[in-house]
Amino acid sequence: MNDYLGRSNSSIIVFGDANPSATFTMPDEIAIYEFKYIELRKELQTHFCEDN
To answer: DSSP label at 39?
Structure first.
């Protein structure tokens, strides 16, 4: 995760089990976008407990 947060081009995130008992495919509804960790941290610290 540190490589990913450090924006390393060789970083990867692995979902699931390396030896699954059933095949899993990523649903179209799930998307992964890059973000700046410091901005996410600031946003969570500032707005996490706001009423919605």
So the answer is: H
- The answer, yes or no, to whether residue 49 has pLDDT greater than 70, is yes
| CA-wise closest residue to 24 among 16, 14, 13 | 16
Q: List C-alpha distances in Å: 10 to 2, 16, 19, 27, 45.
A: 11, 19, 23, 24, 30
Read off the pTM. Answer: 0.34
Give the Cα separation of 9 and 16 in Å (integer): 22
Yes or no: say if 1 and 12 are a contact pair by the CB < 8 Å rule. Answer: no
